User: Fold Prolyl endopeptidase from Tauraco erythrolophus.
Amino acid sequence: QEGTTIPSERKQNTSKTTSELLYKNLLKSEQENWSDISARYKAMTKRIKEKLEELHKYKFNLESPRIVFGDNVYFEENGCVFLSKADGDEGNVDILFSTEDLGFSDAFIQRIRISPDQRYMAINLKSENSEEATCVIMKLGHFPVVEKVIPNVFSFEWATNDVLYYTSKKNLKCQNVFMTTFTNQKHTKLVYTEQDARFFVDIYCTKDRRFLTINSNSKTTSEVWLVDCRHPFKLPALVQARTKGVIYHIEHRNEELYILTTYGEPAEYKLMKAPVASSGMENWQLVYALEEKTKLVDLEMFSDHCVMFLKNAGHLYLSVISFVSHSVQSIKLPTWACEFELESHPEHTTSTCYFQLTSPVHPPKRFAYSFKENNLIEQAVQEVPIITNCHTTRLLAKSKDETLVPITVFHNMNSKELHRKPLLVHVYGAYGIDLNMSFKEDKLMLIEEGWILAYCHVRGGGELGLSWHKDGCQHNKLKGLHDLKACIMLLHELGFSQPKHTALAAASAGGVLAGALCNTDPQLIRAMVLQAPFVDVLNTMMKTHLPLTIEEQEEWGNPLADEKCMKYIKSYCPYQNIKTQCYPSVFITAYENDQRIPVTGVLRYVQKLRKAALDHASRTSKKGNWIPNIILDIQANGSHCDSSWEDSLNEVARHLAFLNKELEV
Assistant:
């Protein structure tokens, strides 16, 4: 009736319905737009796909990880789990089961854990359309049978032959740890709950299988609880109460805890130790400290040695600590190598450490380091059937504040006139995570076709240690943007391509710096490809109901509680700073099922960007005026940057077809 006030709940429901309708219409409009445009890239996409499929046949990525248990070797290939003998007799291989047998034909195996007596196997199955995984526990034997199915599991480890600890994951959060038994009296019990929304819980088993560690980590702080595998029903024991700004992880050897931690000055990783019985911080003793600007990639503990996998100024090396001779060996690795790929579950008592080395354009090569011989051996691998005359160059760009920023550049040695060649620049710069530099067939193809590839290791990433991350997060985010600009300008100055042949690629949080550069310096690049990009920082960080907002405050700040922080985010946020100007062409792939980067923010960004580009074109309408293509491809399949090989192949082919057209290759 006239004059009647609508109850606020009804108002809310009405506005919710309106926004949902608006979202659906926008989504439909973008899908129709892509459907119309995609035809112009069809032939090029087909050619690129065929090339990549041809390269994929060579199976550059070596065999899947092996889990060695005495004489038995377990491994997974194409959704099947196999058992073979460690003597390497290829004819002696049994198929235990497949994901199809378990009724999970569209899922892939994410993690495998085998009970100490090899009676049970726990596996995590994940579909590409979801972040959630299901844990299936199999009873092994002549005819393996499903013993238990647990939904929404993130990590799990066997404490004993029949006691499994696991964490449950709900709405991207992991805060509960459970114990389940497979004895005659089967039962499941909650053993730990994390109350702080900024912390994420996972479970790890020390290499000697003596302890399970319950690890509660925020972006800056840790707390670890120990479960004694000899007494799995005892309450977990606290190692050291969380201390703001101190991260630590635990290994064990001979009744001593080896603690990898940021405790003490400088706030970079150090290896320390303490007795199990008195594990508090006051008892931590230094074993090994990293050099300045060194990134700790990983650590493997063996019975008499500890191997640290390190990066320094773009180069990879090992530090091998001997607990017997109390010496440290430093082993420099081949200069082409950019990334380690570690073997899963190396035997604790082995005398050899195996690992793979790779780069974006070098397929993985397997290496072995012998503790006895103290030498590095390259394992024999099948010859790559194509010859890559690829040159790797490492540069340093001077940023706005004089900081030197590393760049890794790859190009074909046979290429002449590099200033005319297309350049694809990669950036990430968040969470202390390194740019992904593992091997990709498409990168090898681009080098073969004369492209230049550049990887900008800007602040906010982790390439030069923890301080490199700290110097590019929260109120330092703009430093990452200044670094990126300096890198691209240096590349052009040195004759690596030029703006009209330059494209920028980024995924997820890398979209912040890539999108910001588009606003501040669009003249530096001609095109940009983004995958599930984070481009609406301010609006996202204002929405505390979203699953990751609270824990992300340690990276971006809290604009709701701090006005200075709000203004600072507003100063670089890609969505907030779109203006009427000439933009590069942009191709964005987003996912309908993405729980991390809501599609609504990406849709808003694309609409605003397209309007700004068109407004600029109409204001400066003159003959031959260039209008950028702003394309959004929304995938119904796949979740955040996690697609099957087929979907990923289609995505990459579309991105490269777009870049070839835009850069007129």
The longest strand covers residues 173-181. Residues 387-663 form a domain with the Rossmann fold fold (CATH 3.40.50.1820). Residues 8-37 form the longest helix (30 residues).
